[in-house]
């Protein structure tokens, strides 16, 4: 599980590093996010995930992520990479996956948060890669981990408006393509 989380964190960091600040105003596959807003959202998710692993209860606040707030956009990738390293380290501790913790102020099983965030980082890495025209190299193992974590919550995500309607994929689609489709993303989008 921790390796999968680290793998998807790496995907997110690679996608952020591949985003040219000149394109920060561009749209993404997430209708509510420009490239800059999506990077800010990923930065917030990285910080919340670290705090969840450390069993910290923190209020959710709207607005710019403390990870990138006040920084020049050219410095966002470095700030996100630094936060990503702290998040990966926190979830590398096997105890982070045990028992209960909080996502912001919401109590949840730690393993559920870990699984949700593993999917979150991978899916938003894909969104960012598509928006910026960059490749995203997802290993079969990470694709399967994301699919395994996503399937149990996909309907809840659709009901909550986080995911779109499931997209059909051809027979023989990879686990990663199935995960994208389950979240309402078209794996063929470029």
From TrEMBL:
InterPro entries per record: CHP03086 (IPR017520), Maleyloyr_isom (IPR017517), MDMPI_metal-binding (IPR024344)
Domain Mycothiol-dependent maleylpyruvate isomerase metal-binding stretches: 14-129
Alphabetized Pfam families for the sequence: MDMPI_N (PF11716)
Name used for this protein in its record: TIGR03086 family protein
